[in-house]
Amino acid sequence: MAAEQFEQLLRTQELDTRLAQIAHAKANHPLLAKIAETEAHAVEVASGVQDEREERHRLERDQKRLDDEVAMLDAKRSDIEIKLYDGSVKATKDLLLMQEESKHLGERKNSLEDSELEIMEQMEVLQAVLDRAQAEVDADQQKIAELEAEMGAAFAELDAEAHQVSVEREAVVVSVRPELLEAYDKLHRTQPGIVVARLVGGSCQACHMALSAVTVDQIGKLAEDALVHCDECGAILVL
């Protein structure tokens, strides 16, 4: 019965090792790096057109200002046209001045509209750059979604395996006496690597160091359920 407990302890270590491997596989899954790389590229692309985005906003403000000024000129010309033909102004001199003002307002409007056209052309160029960048970002987002779906499936498989391993571990440790399991758990928490190993030919299979003949002889005289540690690495020895 004592030998069986130590065998179960070896199995516990195997299961814990597999759980650690699964956790490591999730934490270092290659898809995580691909997702991070794609996210970084999307951020880089978006940041790379920040100047163009700000310039477009500036041009939009300029266009809005010109639109408002054109609307104001149209309102003024409309008022003048009404007065020119409604008979409210009789003096020829005043009529000529109003016609001249209407002409100047029209010329000013044409100038503003030319400026608006230039702005629209500049905005088209900028928008083409922004559209290309957005297309890249959209492609990256789509790729990220696909990678995350693939990773989710991979993680689901790993989680399912981890659950099975955990269930088996629970069944295994039931047959290990508490003080032996406590000693194992303490070693498992505090030192890396193998903490339970067989003693084969006088050598610890954890650190592969040979124990002295005196030590081996002393171990051979201990009770079957004795808890023995390797003098070199501290691993629990299974005889």
Keywords:
single chain; 239 residues; mainly alpha; three-stranded mixed beta sheet; 6 helices; 3 strands; rod-shaped
Describe the protein.
This protein is mostly helical and 239 residues long. It folds into two domains: 28-156, Helix Hairpins (Orthogonal Bundle); 178-238, no CATH class. It is 77% helix and 4% strand. It has six helices and three strands, in the order αααααββαβ. The protein has helices spanning 2-27, 30-48, 50-85, 92-173, 178-190, 213-220; strands at residues 196-200, 203-204, 236-238. A three-stranded mixed sheet has the order 2-1-3, covered by helices on one side. β1 and β2 form a beta hairpin. The protein starts with a helix and ends with a strand.
Q: What proportion of the residues is helical, as a percent range?
A: over 70%
Report strand order across the widest sheet.
Answer: 2-1-3
Quaternary state, please?
single chain
Radius of gyration: 42 Å
Low-confidence stretches are: none
If helices are DSSP runs of H or I spanning 4 or more residues, what is the number of helices? Answer: 6
What is the gist of this entry?
This protein is mainly alpha-helical and 239 residues long. It has a 3-stranded mixed beta sheet, with helices on one face. The relative contact order is 0.14.
Describe how the helices and strands are arranged.
Elements: H1 2-27, H2 30-48, H3 50-85, H4 92-173, H5 178-190, E1 196-200, E2 203-204, H6 213-220, E3 236-238
Parallel strand pairs: 1-3
Antiparallel strand pairs: 1-2
Helix pairs in contact: 1-4, 2-4, 3-4
